Every structure is written in structure tokens, then in C-alpha cells.
Amino acid sequence: MRLFLAGLLLLLALPARTGEFDHFLPKSLKGIKRVGCRVSPAQVIEEQKRAREVWAARVWAEYANGDRWPDADDLTISYRKTRKKALLDCDAWMETARERVKKGAR
Questions:
Q1: Are strands 68-69 and 32-45 parallel, antiparallel or unpaired?
Q2: Domain of residue 71, residue span
């Protein structure tokens, strides 16, 4: 029972944001040269003050004038227990970005 509850809490702690990536895209698509997503190991501090290894999916955009978005740091879109799921989040975000840029280019 404890294992089941721990798994349920883990699912609640790591929300899947697939399909909600629009708010992670820059407001203005004018001048965007490239967008990307990277997956890297990260640590998440749990309520019990323990660090846990997870995979973080972070997105970025670069403008033609050399500016990067966001200015300070990359935006983390999800934390996942497995690298495969984080890569799937990156794929979904890249598809959303591609569609949005394609619509903006028309």
C-alpha cells in the first residue's frame, strides 16, 4: 500500500504538460532563427527534504539578431522520472513550436 501511495504522489508531483506548450513559446515569432529543447539530469527536492534524480526538459529560442529567449535562463517545461518521457515532452514542444511558426509565416 505504501508503494502504491508513493507512486501516486510521484505522479502528482511530476505533472505531464503535453499539449499545454503554447505558453512556453515566445509571444512574438518575428525574427526567430531557431528553437530547441534539451534534456538533462536534474535534482528535485521532495517534501521530505530529499533530493531525487529526474530528467528535466528545457526549451529555448534564438533570434536572428543574436538575442536568446528567455533572457536569463532556459525554461523548464517538465520533470520526468525517465529520460524517454522527457524526450517525448521535447518532441511534443518542438511539434507545437513548428506548427506555430508555420502559422506565423503565412
A1: unpaired
A2: 2-105
By three-state DSSP, how is residue 44 classified? strand
For residue 106, what is the enclosing H or E element? none
Q: What is the dihedral of CA 97, 75, 12, 19, to 10 degrees?
A: -10
Which amino acid would we find at residue 44?
Answer: V
Percent of the chain that is helix, strand, coil (3-state, to 5):
35, 35, 30
- How many structural domains does the chain have? 1
How sure is the predictor about 87, in pLDDT bands with cuts at 50, 70 and 90? very high
**How far is 66 from 74, CA to CA, in rounded Å?**
15
CA distance 71 to 53: 27
pTM of the entire predicted model: 0.61
Q: Grid coordinates representing 15?
A: 505533472
Over 90: is that where the pLDDT of 20 sits?
Answer: no
Cα Rg of the chain (Å, integer)? 16
